[in-house]
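Notebook entry, structure prediction.
Reason for the run: the old model in the group folder had no record of what sequence produced it. Starting over properly, with the input documented here first.
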Amino acid sequence: MLALRRSLTKALAARTQAPQVCSSFATGPRQYDGTFYEFHTYYVKPSKMNEFLENVKKNIHLRTAHSELVGFWTVEFGGRMNKVFHIWKYDNFAHRTEVQKALAKDKEWQEQFLIPNLALTDKQESEITYLVPWCKLEKPPKDGVYELATFQMKPGGPALWGDPFKRAVHSHVNQGYTKLVGVFHAEYGILNRVHVLWWNESADSRAAGRHQSHEDPRVVAAVRESVNFLGSQQNMLLIPMSFSPLK
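New structure, fully documented this time:
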């Protein structure tokens, strides 16, 4: 009888406790920092590329007066030609909303920057990303070229592929084959997508480092582990504009 009472007491206590969420359902480390990075990709009309770049160079200060520009590049290799890529930093979504409201009231920006450039552009894309928890944005030691490598990972989030991906990235960095600028995880756009922004002194030094890494058993082992969770990948070679904070 005493054993039965104890069982009923334990059952009642379990029912009255707050429901617990199983950690195995999580897709990765929580994003506690509100800071995010908006990726912009503009496809410029082929005959208007020079005009577009000149206008941006002349009037970019009208846009950077409202929020922080991380980097602005032209795409040299990879995918469609006559393309530019730029990254903007925001404290949180409320900050971005305030910036957009301010831009909507800024007649000088609209007349000198926005409207002329829209006429020169075929298509625009936007993606919201966070830096992964184990990475911070690094500034390269000097001018160079950048590679944006984009990985489409299998569904499941960083809880599934985060650690192997981290090891693959660090295997390149630790051996000095390239410099890591940042690793970004998509929040809005195509999900389960990760962008790795690399820096090299030149396209040739990038090629040399890549060839050496392919012969390094430590890199090969880490990459082979990571590709088990990979769907597809692509990359672009980026050339920074003269006004780009990341050069």
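Summary: The mean pLDDT is 88.
The old model has been moved to the deprecated folder.
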